[in-house]
Amino acid sequence: MATTSDDDRRLRDLTRLRRVRDRIDREYAEPLDVASLARGAHMSAGHLSREFRRVYGESPYSYLMTRRIERAMTLLRRGDLSVTDVCFAVGCSSLGTFSTRFTELVGMPPSEYRVHHADATVGIPACLAKQVTRPIRNREAPAGR
How far is residue 114's CA from residue 98's CA, in Å, rounded to a whole number? Predict the structure, then answer.
């Protein structure tokens, strides 16, 4: 049975993890790494990574990359930026890493997505478009998507 102090510690950790997740959501385009996120949450990097994965089902880095890919999908559908411009606009510093992660989550390279999904959200309210176009998390995109 957990003691009150254990419960208090868990609640504090959950609050810190939520703040880390919120920071990633807000600052996804900024240079973020686990060490700086952990410092901001007053946790060790290892503890943050373990607890974030336990609570949210993925590592802080994976969550960050998913946020970046979601934003990239929106920018690519707009069609006015190149893939390279989108890569840097969402905070990625390597076009190769961006393209690889995009392909893993979406099921096609960003250049192909840009061509084939420009009108994917036409006529769909923005609140629903986000759900329809959300990349797959915690697993690769199914073949043929």
Answer: 14
